UniProtKB/TrEMBL annotation:
<dbReference type="InterPro" id="IPR011559">
    <property type="entry name" value="Initiation_fac_2B_a/b/d"/>
</dbReference>
<feature type="binding site">
    <location>
        <begin position="246"/>
        <end position="247"/>
    </location>
    <ligand>
        <name>substrate</name>
    </ligand>
</feature>
<dbReference type="InterPro" id="IPR037171">
    <property type="entry name" value="NagB/RpiA_transferase-like"/>
</dbReference>
<feature type="site" description="Transition state stabilizer">
    <location>
        <position position="156"/>
    </location>
</feature>
<protein>
    <recommendedName>
        <fullName>Methylthioribose-1-phosphate isomerase</fullName>
        <ecNumber>5.3.1.23</ecNumber>
    </recommendedName>
</protein>
<feature type="active site" description="Proton donor">
    <location>
        <position position="236"/>
    </location>
</feature>
<dbReference type="InterPro" id="IPR000649">
    <property type="entry name" value="IF-2B-related"/>
</dbReference>
<comment type="function">
    <text>Catalyzes the interconversion of methylthioribose-1-phosphate (MTR-1-P) into methylthioribulose-1-phosphate (MTRu-1-P).</text>
</comment>
<comment type="similarity">
    <text>Belongs to the EIF-2B alpha/beta/delta subunits family. MtnA subfamily.</text>
</comment>
<dbReference type="GO" id="GO:0046523">
    <property type="term" value="F:S-methyl-5-thioribose-1-phosphate isomerase activity"/>
</dbReference>
<keyword id="KW-0486">Methionine biosynthesis</keyword>
<dbReference type="InterPro" id="IPR005251">
    <property type="entry name" value="IF-M1Pi"/>
</dbReference>
<feature type="binding site">
    <location>
        <position position="89"/>
    </location>
    <ligand>
        <name>substrate</name>
    </ligand>
</feature>
<comment type="pathway">
    <text>Amino-acid biosynthesis; L-methionine biosynthesis via salvage pathway; L-methionine from S-methyl-5-thio-alpha-D-ribose 1-phosphate: step 1/6.</text>
</comment>
<dbReference type="Pfam" id="PF01008">
    <property type="entry name" value="IF-2B"/>
</dbReference>
<keyword id="KW-0028">Amino-acid biosynthesis</keyword>
<feature type="binding site">
    <location>
        <position position="195"/>
    </location>
    <ligand>
        <name>substrate</name>
    </ligand>
</feature>
């Protein structure tokens, strides 16, 4: 990508403010844990992997000024800041996963406070670099599934803007493009916040990949007319049985894909699997402000006083998913035993 969604340089965190896209490329520089929390909550940084990485840097920003003099007091500060940052958004498991990983990194060390502070930063930097490699591997693993396709359909934004660099759902598309096989990508606009129209279409055009933008309600026609050969989306949390939480509208798209015999692939890092949950009924679903539905670009489009239901995510049942694409390989049904083996392999 021409721009980096997340940067750390000279002791400062820089986040591409995605609420300004596509009209303006602007960075914010949150200097406190509270400012990072706001950036995550306000969707200035978004996408499951990206908010996990941002939160890890937020943890460092929150404890680098700690006045704790003992290891135990400092670890108490780490736990307090991590618990606070984890409340920014409830559905994407990468947020809490990244914070727990950095916490474990420092909790096992018997070291002075200054060393522990440095280790918190090192943990965040490690997550940033690891995510770049992981997304590349997702692209490489998923490319063969789309090698015979002419066009695909995607929903929301699971590209470079949602990660450290390369994306999850868009990673196989980018990989194929680099190999000389360019797919056309149909992009759902993704109401109510238009992440498809504002973000996915923008970054694909930046990469030189042909894009056709559609409203969410046009997906059925696109599938019926066989304009696409596959649907590929990202994920915010996947339960042990394969039920998948992703941006609202994914479930309906999955039903449509199954009805029309089009494969639905979910691309994600293994960190997005939540093996503590048996099924999707246990996944917490974030509900956001009614203003996101009643207003568009700050202009009211619905009558005053109307009731609004605004879940940010829905859960797609595992039986509607053709395969999961991860950095360690493609996972096919039956997902129960396959994910149990993955959990064993990951040591989780």
């Amino acid at each position: 990508m021409a721009v980096a969604p997340i940067e750390w340089a000279d002791g400062r965190l820089r986040l591409l403010d995605q609420t300004r896209l596509p009209g303006e490329v602007r960075y914010v520089e949150p200097a406190t844990a509270e400012a990072v929390w706001e950036a995550i909550r306000a969707l200035r940084v978004r996408g499951a992997p990206a908010i996990g990485i941002a939160a890890a840097f937020g943890l460092y920003l929150g404890v680098r000024g700690s006045e704790a003099r003992t290891r135990e007091a400092f670890l108490a500060d780490v736990r307090r800041v991590a618990e606070y940052l984890a409340t920014a958004r409830p559905t994407a498991v990468n947020l809490s996963w990244a914070l727990r990983r950095v916490q474990r990194r420092v909790e096992v060390l018997e070291a002075p406070v200054d060393t522990l502070k440095a280790e918190v930063l090192a943990g965040a930097l490690e997550l940033l670099e690891e995510d770049r490699r992981t997304c590349r591997d997702i692209g490489r693993r998923g490319a063969p599934l789309l090698a015979g396709a002419r066009a695909v359909l995607t929903h929301c934004n699971a590209g470079g803007l949602a990660t450290a660099q390369y994306g999850t759902a868009l990673a196989p598309i980018y990989h194929l493009h680099e190999q000389g096989h360019t797919l056309r990508v149909y992009v759902d606009e993704t109401r109510p916040l238009l992440q498809g129209a504002r973000l996915t279409a923008w970054e694909l055009l930046q990469a030189g990949i042909p894009v056709t933008l559609i409203t969410d309600s046009m997906a059925a026609v696109v599938l019926r007319q066989r304009r696409v050969d596959a649907v590929i989306v990202g994920a915010d949390r996947v339960a042990s049985n394969g039920d998948t939480a992703n941006k609202i509208g994914t479930y309906g798209l999955a039903v449509l894909a199954r009805e029309h015999g089009v494969p639905l692939y979910v691309a994600l890092p293994t960190s997005t699997f939540d093996f503590s949950l048996p099924d999707g009924d246990r996944i917490p679903i974030e509900e956001r402000s009614p203003d996101e539905v009643t207003h568009l670009a700050g202009v009211r489009t619905a009558p005053e006083g109307v009731d609004v239901f605004n879940p940010a995510f829905d859960v797609t049942p595992a039986h509607l998913i053709t395969a999961f694409i991860t950095e360690v390989g493609v996972i096919h049904p039956p997902f129960g035993p396959a994910l149990a083996q993955l959990r064993k392999d990951l040591g989780r």
